Structure formats: C-alpha cells, structure tokens
Amino acid sequence: MLLEVRDLHVEFTTRDGVAKAVNGVDYSVDAGETLAVLGESGSGKSVTAQAVMGILDMPPGRIAGGEILFKGKDLLTMREEERRRIRGAEMAMIFQDALSSLNPVLSVGAQLGEMYEVHRGLSRKVARAKAVELMDRVKIPAARQRVGDYPHQFSGGMRQRIMIAMALALEPSLIIADEPTTALDVTVQAQVMDLLAELQRELNMGLILITHDLGVVADVADKIAVMYAGRIVESAPVHEIYAAPAHPYTRGLLDSIPRLDQKGQELYAIKGLPPNLLHIPPGCAFNPRCPMAQPVCRTDVPPLYEVTESPVPRTTACHFWKECLHA
Amino acid sequence: MPEPILEVKELVKHYPLTQGILFKRQIGAVRAVDGVSFGLHQGETLGIVGESGCGKSTVAKMLVNLERPTSGTISYKGEDITRLPARALKAVRRNIQMVFQDPYTSLNPRMTVGDIIGEPYEIHPEVAPKGDRRRKVQELLDVVGLNPEYINRYPHQFSGGQRQRIGIARGLALRPEVIVADEPVSALDVSVQAQVVNLLERLQDEFSLSYVFIAHDLSIVRHISDRVGVMYLGRIVETGTDTEIYEHPTHPYTQALLSAVPVPDPRARAIRERIILSGDVPSPANPPSGCRFRTRCWKAQERCAVEVPPLAVPQWFPSGPRAHPSACHFAAEKRVVPVTAPPPSPPPAAPPPAAPPTGLPGEERPPGDR
C-alpha cells in the first residue's frame, strides 16, 4: 500500500474551544489508484490532506492521534528533515486556486525550475530547460516562449496546468489534488481532469482527489471515501456506492442531484445544516439531519460496519446500513 | 402567446478600453454583451448558461439597471426601461429585483437582517408604511423558511444557505414580478443547494414570479428552467425549451458544453462521448470574426470566419425538437447527454447513440474511449 492513514485525529484550538476537524479517519491509496475524498466544506477533507502532506498550521492545529504510513513508514514520527525530502519529491499537492498558490513575482519558469534546483541540485540553466520540458508535458502551447511569463499572464486553465507541472516535476508516487478544477469552467475542467488522468496512468501514481462534485468523482475515481464532520462515513468502490449507498448521508447527496424524471417536482434536500465542529452532536454526527435516525443514533457513535469484504473492502458508519442499502 | 413580461432586443454592452492618463483615447472595447435578444413570459423561468466571461452576469446587471446598455432595448410590459426618466425608472425597478451569487459579500455585515430586508422599503415607502415594516420583514423571513425571531441578528450569525435565504427575502420585499438570480446556489454546499432551489420554485408558484436564472451548473438549470439560452462570448448561440437544448442540441458549443459536464453516475463513463474543446475562450476585447466559436470548433470552415451565423431556426430542420434557434452554419443534432436509469420516456425520433448500460458497466470500455 502506497499510503495508509490510520485513525487520524486533528484538532484546532480556537477562541471558542477545541474544534475537532478530523475524528478518526482511515483511508488508503495504492499506486495507480484514484481515491476520491468527497465532502462538504468543514467535513475535514482538506485538513486530512494537509496532515498527510505535513503542511498543517501547527498551532492552532494539532495532530491528536493516529498514524500516516507512506510506503510503510510513519510520517508523523519522522524527523522533519526526512519529511522535507519526501514532500515535493515523493508526494506533491495541487491546490484549488492556482493564482494564489503561485508566486506572482517570479516567472513560471523560475518556479518550476526551483523544484530541480532545490531537490536535485541542478544549475539554473539546466533547471530552466527542464521547466520547458515540463510545460510541454502538461500541453502548454509555445512552452519555450512562455517560460519567462508570470502567473497573471496565463488563463485559469493554463495556471492549473502549471500547478500540475510543478507537482509532477520530480515524478512523485503520490499526488493529492485538493479541488483542482472547482475554480474552472466545465470545458476547461474536462481538459484538466483528462490531463491529470493521463499523467497518472503514465507515471503509475496514486491520486487522492478531494472534491465536493459527485460528477467528477463518478468520472475518475476507483474508490470513494465520503466524509462528514471529520469522519469517513462510507467508503466503497465507485460503482457500488453510486448503485446502492449504505449511509443515509451518501444517499441524501445522491438523491439531491436533479434528475431528468424529476423535472417539475421538488428536489430531495437533506434538511438542516452541517454541524458546528465545536459542538459535534453526540452519537452519530449526522443524526439531527438523518431521515432514518432512531434513539440509538443519538447516543451511540456507530462503528465502521463491513458491508462487503472483497475485492475492495466496503465500510459504512451507520447503525442501520442494511435498511439504507435496501431502501 | 401573450406579450412577454420582459423583452430584450439586440442588447449590447461595450466597456471602453482607454489609453493615456490626461487625454484618454479609446483604443478598443471589451464586447461583454454583443447583441442579445430574448423574451420572458409571466411565470416562466429562463435559464442562461455559459462559461465565465460569456457575458451572462452583464446581462443580469443590465436587466436590473445596474449597468446601462450601450445599445439595444429592455422592455418591461412593452415599455423600454433603458431610456426612462429617473422617476419612472424607479417605479419600474420595484418590479425587477435581483438575487446575487455570493451570500457572503452581498449582505452588509453591519446591518441587521431586519434592516437588510427592510431597506427596499426605505426607497419605495409606498409599498409598506413605516409602522408596518417590521411585521412585513418577519413575514418575509417566515416565507423563506427562517425563524422570524432572527430579525435582529447579523449576517455573520447565519450559514451560507441561510444567508442566501436572506438575499432572497430582500429580493421579494417589494413584491416584484421578475427576479433575476445570478448564480444563486453556486456558492452553497451540495446538500444546501437543493434546499434553496426548492425554495425558489415554491416562491415562484406562490407569487407567480418570472425568473431569469443564470448559472453554470447545467443540471440545476435544466431542473428549474422552462427555456434555456446558451451564451458564448457575448452572444446567445442556441436557445430553446429545456428538452430541445439538452436532448437535441444542434450548436457545437452547446454539445461540447453538455458533454463536458461530469455525469454523477460511474456507469456513464463507458457510454458517454465527450467532446474536449481545445484552448481557452478568446478575449472579448478581440473576438474572432464571423462565428465567435470557430477558433475552438471542430466543424469550422472558411465560411465561418467571414459570415456571422444568425440565431435562427436552421432551414433544414423544419419541425420537431431540432427546430429551435441555433447560431451555426452547420447546425446538426448530436445527442450528448447519456440516458441514465431510470430512463425518461424516450422521444420517438433520434434514437440515442448508445444503448443504456447493461450487466456490469464500466468494465468493458471501447478502446480509445477516455
């Protein structure tokens, strides 16, 4: 297994108390595999990724427990020097907003080349040539002419390609893409997702795709982890989860997509609001919004139930998953 | 058909590009909107879709008179509102209200909810006498599904979905007939979007409102709209009923746009055909000659660079769902939205290009299918 997150807990100290952003997350991704982490804002999907990358703001953040195994070694107990060698070279991240993630006063060539200068010790000239190669690879037209341009001179889609190029520079084995296409238009989103999938295949990378878009997930993922209030409430291979969700939250998300045969009818809507992380409801965090909630849901935190074992294990955190699966 | 409540003809908005500081010379113009026409009937929802920079938000701003058109007319019940004197304009504005995209920046953080929703009454005091306003605001809060006791709270005490409800209540305050909603749900979480869409639909029935619904999320537009207009670089390239546009698109841009939308069903991977456009949208300051889509179009011929295709029903489609206005010299039907289970009653004409999925879909992908 390339990456394995085990029982990860992350907390943030705020003025109003301790916000439990991640409460026991388990997931794993293998080489060449795409894991989609699906969740709404505040579900903890980005915080988990930041903990994996080691770019969490600490303080106010604090890793309160768990392990993150990368190629079998625990990143959390590693020395910072060792971790820095891994970050960027072996695992890389693509951020949502390319304009604010790129340095506005350095040319893109300088920023891409920096990867080689810092990690590989190449000279500036060689690094520049490598940068052109990279830009070609992510299909930026006229790479040689544009290598000296600054981020603001590129369109949104092109900037996101530069982000991808930067992440790929050292051919990492794991890429974490945090909402990589959310800021882009659909036709450009299609181009960027295609490019990402192609490069992933070519380099046999593991990909963690963080998103809230059920459409993008259905298009590219091999397996899905659905997050709610800092927990993975359901995790399953992509086909199984769309065919028959085993958690009421997943079911609610899928049902709230407008469908052709529902035109003119009311859309299904999950009632209520996502919980405040300072005051996560006792029992199952989803119980105040759940149409299937029973008294036990308000008192007992549901464990992870195993729905199927093979070939990819499927789990859900719902006391009544059987009813949900067959609803 | 009765007279449309709102009719837009040849609407144009150019923003001048100038050079020099003391003596400004105009060196060009950003053609944000360049000849847009449509009508909106009582109780109807017109969806406008398009990518960023296509001019859809500029159209919205002109409809509520936040921007003055460079040329063209906007008629409300037969009266051109672009050339009205101030006093008459104020009266008309009451009837056309707007709901904005971002519920975080469109509500003044220093005003209470009661002040925000009641502010329209300051400008149009004839709608509600002073003593009556608080009660009216509480009624509005109730109508949009918020607790009327929240009247003295501030926007930051609400979540995104609740804030959007406040924005909608403000839009309803003057009892308008037309509401222009510019991306009203795109800033919201998925589970909250459906709530707000349902609210908008319920209010439409309750107050017989007409909506201009602007969005880039094609599935939500389809759900809420009676008719849809597709915009590209300042022009409407195709327009028709929701079925005509989604099931029988004839303009290549509409086809590409629809095919690029991810389908929330993994079984669709194997059967859907995607058209990946190359390149980016050209700059509206320097749009291509002839058909504006030709630089990204796979059908483009020499004729497209010379002749601007009119937005009209193609002669070669005399009737049926394909016969709707499409601004393409080579308009041809192509079905791009896969039929996902459960299938709607399929139209007799134009069989879908691929059979619905059977067995274990996704495992057998045709070679070359991406």
TrEMBL record, chain A:
SMART domains: AAA (SM00382). InterPro entries: AAA+_ATPase, ABC_Ni/Peptide_Import, ABC_transporter-like_ATP-bd, ABC_transporter-like_CS, Oligopep_ABC_C, P-loop_NTPase. This is ABC transporter ATP-binding protein. NCBIfam families: oligo_HPY. The lineage of its organism: Bacteria, Bacillati, Actinomycetota, Actinomycetes, Kitasatosporales. One of its GO terms (molecular function) is ATP binding. Belongs to the ABC transporter superfamily. SUPFAM superfamilies: P-loop containing nucleoside triphosphate hydrolases (SSF52540). Pfam families: ABC_tran, oligo_HPY. The keyword Secreted does not apply. It comes from the Bacteria. Residues 5-254 form the ABC transporter domain. It is found in: Cell membrane.
TrEMBL record, chain B:
It holds the Pfam family ABC_tran. InterPro entries: AAA+_ATPase, ABC_transp_ATP-bind, ABC_transporter-like_ATP-bd, ABC_transporter-like_CS, Oligopep_ABC_C, P-loop_NTPase. SUPFAM superfamilies: P-loop containing nucleoside triphosphate hydrolases (SSF52540). Gene3D superfamilies: P-loop containing nucleotide triphosphate hydrolases. Residues 6-258 form the ABC transporter domain. It comes from Streptomyces cirratus. Residues 340-359 have a biased composition (Pro residues). Belongs to the ABC transporter superfamily. One of its GO terms (molecular function) is ATP binding. This is ABC transporter ATP-binding protein. SMART domains: AAA (SM00382). Residues 338-370 are annotated as: Disordered. Keywords: ATP-binding, Nucleotide-binding, Transport.
